[in-house]
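subagent[fold] <- orchestrator: predict structure for attached chain, return tokens only, no commentary.
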Amino acid sequence: MSEPIWNAFLTERDRAVFAASGYGALQGFGQRPAILVIDVNYNFCGDRPEPILESIKRWRNSCGEEAWAGVSAIRRLIAAGRAKGLPVLYTTGVRREDDWDAGSWAWKNSRSAERVLPANAPRADGNTIVPDIGPLPDDLVVYKQKPSAFYGTPLLSWLILLGADSLIVTGTTTSGCVRASVLDAFSNNLRVSLVEEGCFDRAQASHAINLCDMHAKYADVVKLDEALAQIDRLPEGLFPNLPGRVAAARAAA
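subagent[fold] -> orchestrator:
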């Protein structure tokens, strides 16, 4: 088995501390997991695979080519989840046209006032979820304005309504919205599994170290194949109350 991605960034002291402290134990998957895809939109992926320093000329928050490798992994994950009937939830941003509600986002980035969008983008709105993995009628989309998928959104109430006890998380950025969402999920006593290949960030060190920290304390970082195998082991019919199915049942009644 390959070494964790973060080992290259740890000192010998760090490794010794983790080994002695007991952190990083595997909590395991939940029994009723939902899949959460965080902010996989044009703003963070760009509109096509290209080196990050090229992509951020037009999409200042882009994660470049790593984003599109993540999209490929996420596509496989959500296909397996849908085949098993698991809830698939997405997050993306929402903002007023005049950007008044940018709030604290405007304080730490010198390009935050930019409103120029690529003329050749498939759609102008950077919050558009990448169509390769876009939501279907049974899926749910959470619109948010801050890093955590839980902050000021109905996400937790939807998970309760669905009866989900855990999350399989993918998306971006690992050090930002993914981490914030994982910590809030942990704080609400949800088990979290992070699919390593389905998470990405602009900075390689930030990506690796935040995976390390989350695996140590708040979540299990798992490989895509491990997540797919776990989904395959789940029984059918765990979530008969997915939105599209409820609507269809009502129409047929």
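orchestrator: received. Logging for downstream: The chain has a mean pLDDT of 91. The longest strand covers residues 191-200.
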